[in-house]
Design brief:
Layout lengths: L1 E12 L2 E12 L3 E5 L6 H8 L7 E6 L2 E6 L5 E3 L2 H8 L2 E4 L11 H11 L5 H14 L15 H13 L5 E5 L7 H16 L3 E5 L3 H7 L2 E6 L2 E6 L1 H4 L6 H12 L1
Parallel strand pairs: 3-9, 3-10, 7-8, 8-9
Antiparallel strand pairs: 1-2, 1-4, 4-5, 5-6, 10-11
Length: about 250
């Protein structure tokens, strides 16, 4: 089953074309890593897919539901708000800077959306939250506040919060870029476990080891376009594009 289908996506900020004719699909249970230099449009793409930004043109279909499509005049037309609300619930987003509510405990950070948005009972939401905290190795942090957590712990709480809504697809925007190497390992372990459970994930990352080991497919973007996509061993080890080769070579020299 196709979980996400993107066709002809275009997005500009004023006269700056940030996304130019982006098209790809993600199957259920697939992990897709998106790599590329800073400013290549990777984060903007994720923001468009998760309704944090509006596109100018193109089609986005999530689990068979049309989020946006282009009309005859060439303008993007979004589904009604009632449909978008349903689509939003199918998606989880993990940001690079965690975005936890500072005045809520860890437990409340995870239960707030299930109780307020999904109308799940407090008891059920807490039971699910504790199950997720155990999975993250953080059950002893239920009553802690974000300022009492390390970066790695904060990011694992953010992942638990996204999973608490039982999304069909999880998006990660550079989930380890704010972390030092030791804490990066904690977060990548959790993501590897999710991949092993066949969670559908789209991950913007600079962690080439993760992309090589965990992703089913790698997409290389540059200047708002998809330059190359394919199996990790091909894109990362034997790319066909000169631009991809230069990018990979640049990484290995750092």
């Amino acid at each position: 089953m196709v979980m996400l289908e993107v066709k002809g996506l275009c997005k500009s900020f004023d006269s700056n074309r940030v996304l130019n004719d982006i098209s790809f699909k993600v199957d259920k249970g697939e992990v897709v890593a998106i790599i590329g230099p800073s400013g290549s449009g990777k984060s903007t793409l994720l923001r468009c897919l998760t309704l944090l930004e509006k596109v100018d043109q193109g089609t986005i279909i999530v689990a068979g539901d049309v989020m946006v499509q282009t009309n005859k005049e060439g303008h993007a037309v979004y589904a009604p708000e009632s449909s978008l609300k349903k689509i939003r619930l199918r998606m989880g987003m993990v940001f690079q800077d965690f975005n936890l509510f500072p005045h809520f405990s860890v437990l409340r950070n995870i239960t707030e959306a299930p109780v307020r948005v999904a109308r799940i009972s407090q008891d059920q939401a807490e039971e699910r939250a504790m199950e997720l905290l155990r999975k993250m190795g953080l059950e002893d942090k239920r009553d802690a506040y974000p300022y009492q957590l390390s970066g790695g712990q904060s990011q694992r709480v953010a992942i638990a919060r996204a999973l608490a809504m039982n999304p069909d697809i999880l998006f990660f925007d550079e989930p380890t870029s704010a972390l030092d190497p030791e804490l990066t390992g904690e977060v990548l372990r959790v993501m590897r476990a999710l991949a092993a459970e066949r969670m559908t994930m789209v991950v913007v990352t600079h962690e080439m080891g993760f992309a090589r080991e965990v992703a089913d497919r790698v997409i290389f973007m540059d200047k708002g376009q998809i330059v190359e996509e394919g199996r990790p061993e091909v894109v990362l080890c034997n790319p066909s594009s000169e631009r991809t080769r230069a990018f990979i070579k640049g990484l290995s020299e750092h």
